[in-house]
Amino acid sequence: MERSAAAEVTGSLHGFPAALTSFIGRADVVNEIAGQLGQDRLVTLTGPGGAGKTRLAGEVARHLASQSADGVWLAELAAVRDPAQVAAAVGAALGIRDLPSVAAADALARALARRQLLLVLDNCEHVIGAAAELCGRLLLGADDVRVLATSREPLRIAGEVRYRLGPLTLPDPEDLVAAARCEAVELFADRARRADRGFVLDEQTAAMAARLVARLDGMPLAIELAAARVDALGVAQLLDRLDDRFGLLADGDRFGLLADGDRLAEGRHRSLAAAVQWSYQLLDDFERRVFRAVSVFPGPFTLDGAEAVAGSGAGRAVLRLVDCSLLAPPRYDPDGRSRYVMLETLRAYGAGLLAEAGEDGAASAALADYALAVAEEAAEGLHTRTWEVAGIRHFDAESVTLRHALAWAMEHDPATGLRLALAQVPWWQLQGYLTHQAPLLAAVAEHADIGSDEWYTVHLCLGQVAGQSADPAAALEHFTMVRDVLDDTGPPATPARPVLLALCLAGRSSTLIQAGRVAEAAEESRRALAVAEASGYQGLEAVALASLSIAAWYTGDRDGALQLARRAQRIPEEFAGSLQRGLGQIVTMVLTETGDLAAADEVCTAALASCRKVGDLTNLSGQLWHKTILDLRADRIGDATAHLREQLQIAMHTGQRPVLLAGLDCCGRLCAATRRPAEAVTMWAARAALAGPMPLVHGSIDPALRAELRHQAEQLLGAARAHAARERGAAMSLAAAAEYALMLATAQPPSAQNGFGASRPAAAPAIDQAADGAADGAAVNGAGIGTGVDKLSPRERELVTLVAQGRTDAQIAAQLYISVRTVSSHLDRIRDKTGCRRRADLTRLALSAGLV
From CA 759, how far away is CA 762, in angstroms rounded? Predict the structure, then answer.
């Protein structure tokens, strides 16, 4: 039972690093803060740098992990230097990557409005205004989100409760015998034993340790830095040298943390500065310069990175910094490279020295140049199948540095920012958040010279983003603009021009298909193939063949589409693995439609494995759609449900509207196969309303079969209920329809035996009147959702309906002319009655009960 509970707590924690050392003291503080969070939704843990705020917040999080339905999430803000990036960084930590560049805090609040979680915002002080704004939006727009913030100063917004974190308990000067039992000495002894196995806390060392921790004001970071030198200096010399260091601070605090007046006690900062300054003074001039330079890294860095920003020979100095505890020992990352980490407080200290020396601008520029070299090298790997995985891992390992360097470059060096953004596009595409980078790409496009390779490339990317967002008009505008400028320039001025033109024509073809202009699409694909063949780039020829294959499929030439896709797959030259997986989608689609299900399943299974291996979410979501169709046609209802559920989750995450619409279409088919006629009609009506005249880019189930299945479902329901199901679907937003589809793909469906939606592709299946019991669609329950709607009063049902419609507590209160506190009390009672803890659960309950 204990092991099970521990596993449950661990699974509820997201983003928190494993605790590699013991947590000493402050048990009462943990309980007090946890209790405060039970009463108030925003608690800010304040204190000076090195006070142990982050570690304490982690312990509070573990203490409360089992009390939040959606867990406890850590958002580290230490690496965020630009306040405008705070909401995006928090969203990324929560797995939400589709935040707009404008009003990002409001968008994040809306995204969290249906979750019940505890958010730990760590290190807010350097972006205090943006953190305050974000917390204010969360308090107003996400009623079931609680926030524990750590900062060196309070946020100063309504609803905040400030908790001042003091030092660890210090020994009584009059009772040094009891020194070993105080928190500060206990921490020192524990860390000293890690540095020197022979260290013993006896009567003599205990007295010196008591004096030492008192001189350090009980600050955990200062104590740990001092303890790390026990093996080299011993406690007596540690105490003596620390005393010597105080004299160096007579001209002011080198941390610069007292700029805001007496908010923090001067002595406390002087003690922390003494510990760090003492380590810094042990370095020679060159090592100090390297220490200052590498503080520009917002996260882990390699020796190559250190030399890129600090100059030749920096590697030797880095090893010395590790020895002096100014850098953590290297860790071996999945990309095969070792990286070093500087503690956040030390990094802040180094950054202050860097600015004081006037070296910060040069170091930041060097970091941006290094990041660009890393991104371009990693991107080269993504353009091949052989080095794709290595390239992805390199991108992943350097993600913090790339994000920071890009933000700096956008403000100080737009030309580098443009190249850095474009180098990351293949990685963003694989990771499934290219569509979320539209504002950034639009911003960098402003700095590209018309007719330059960068200008062509960024508009091709914007066209791709628009296509994935189901905006064919915008996509066509970008592709057409690129084509026209390329055509006007005459012969290729650079080797990249034929590549750009072929990609542009292929993009236009895909967009024209979205717009229903299939004949024009085929013509553009043929021209793309001609350009590719003339260029001599076989990989480019594969792109054109893939485009032409899709166009052939939409013209009804199934055999031609298959032949073209197979021809592309046989090209021996290295080309991007993502293209190879995309070809797998085309082959799967054509084989499925021609009835060769065994071959289609084989190709689809291999493509799925390839997508999962590299984390290609873009192709994975599309291939899961095809797998679901194959499962349905083979009557593998359980597998179809699982694959559709995963497909919907990925499509919702990536924001690819066409793929999500394909999932809604497939959900209708699944409901037909599982004797849920009302749900099938609702899903198809939602898809039709949301898609409009736009065809499904990933194909669809046979239109004639869908029409027959819909007709059978409506016959089974009767005119009135069929009309209600259609109206319900047509009124859904994309988000509501996706949530409903996910609910249907999570629920346990009735047996598919004799269902009206059997998977035979040719003849229409027979209607089974036994499905009539599920015809009104009012009793579909997702996993873990309560079934106590009948226990709710009319007013409580009204509240559940409003929650499902996306209303906040404040909006519900205004609409019903009651107080927010009353709304909260009602919802608490509803949760107790139904077992639905999250707002998303209440939404699903409302959907399953037909309240919306």
Answer: 9
- The closest of 622, 744, 589 to 681, measured between CA atoms, is 744
Q: Report CA 413 to chain centroid distance, whole Å.
A: 27
In tens, the pLDDT along 733-774 reads: 888 888 899 989 987 666 555 456 544 443 333 334 334 444
CA gap 560, 581 in Å, rounded = 19
Q: Among residues 809, 581, 582, which one has the least CA distance to residue 697? A: 582
The answer to whether the beta carbons of residues 582 and 621 sit under 8 Å apart is no
Q: Please answer whether residues 391 and 385 qualify as being in contact, where contact means their C-beta atoms are separated by less than 8 angstroms.
A: no
Q: Is 537 left (phi over 0), alpha (psi -120 to 50) or beta?
A: beta
What is 104-117 written as a DSSP string?
Answer: HHHHHHHHTTT--E
Nearest-angstrom CA–CA distance, 158 and 160:
6
Helix intervals (H) in 753-819: 794-804, 809-816
Contact 529/511 with Cβ under 8 angstroms? no
Enumerate helices (H) and strands (E) in the chain, giving the number of each.
39, 8
Residue 678 in tokens: 């009302």
Which residues are CB-contacts of 434 (< 8 A; sequence separation ≥ 6)? 425, 428, 461, 464, 465, 468, 618
Q: Where does 142-200 have alpha helices with state H? A: 183-195
Q: What tokens does 650 get?
A: 């990925």
The two structure tokens encoding residue 123:
């290190």
Distance CA 735, CA 60 (A): 34
**Cβ neighbour number for residue 593 with a 10 Å cutoff:** 18
Q: What is the DSSP string of 322-342?
A: HHTTSSEEEEE-TTS-EEEE-
Residue 28: other Cβ atoms inside 10 A: 8
Percent of the chain residues topping a pLDDT of 70 = 87
- The pLDDT confidence band at residue 775, using thresholds 50, 70 and 90, is very low
> Distance between CA atoms of 230 and 213, rounded to whole angstroms?
13
Amino acid in the structure at residue 168: L
- Amino acid letter, 552: A
Tokens of 540: 């480019």
Which residues, including other chains, have CB under 8 Å from residue 717's CB and lie 6 or more apart? 677, 678, 681, 725, 775, 776
Give the Cα separation of 444 and 421 in Å (integer): 8
Strand partners, 145: 117
Output DSSP code: residue 301.
Answer: B
C-alpha separations of 680 from 28, 756, 816 in Å = 55, 11, 34
Higher per-residue pLDDT: 496 or 261: 496
The H or E element spanning position 121 is: strand 117-122
Candidates 713, 776, 782; CA nearest to 742 is 782
Contacts with 248 (C-beta within 8 Å, 6 or more apart), sequence order: 274, 277, 281
Phi, psi (rounded to 5 degrees) for 119: -105, 125
Q: Residue 143: name the closest of 105, 108, 113, 119 by CA.
A: 113
Q: Can you tell me the mean pLDDT for 300-325?
A: 90
* C-alpha pair distances (Å), 787 with each of 615, 782, 848: 37, 10, 9
Residues 6+ apart with CB under 8 A from 567: 545
Task: Identify the three-state secondary structure at position 580.
Answer: helix
Judge contact between 155 and 149, C-beta under 8 A: yes
Q: Which helix (H) or strand (E) holds 404?
A: helix 399-412
Structure tokens at 357: 């020396």
Q: What is the DSSP string of 10-42?
A: HHHEESPPP--S---S-HHHHHHHHHHHHH-SE
Name the β-bridge partners of 13.
72
Contact assessment for residue 381 and residue 322, using Cβ atoms and an 8 Å cutoff: no
Amino acid at 229: R
End-to-end CA distance of the chain: 40
Average pLDDT of the chain is 83
Nearest to 606 by CA among 635, 577, 574: 577
Helix residue ranges, H only, 145-182: none
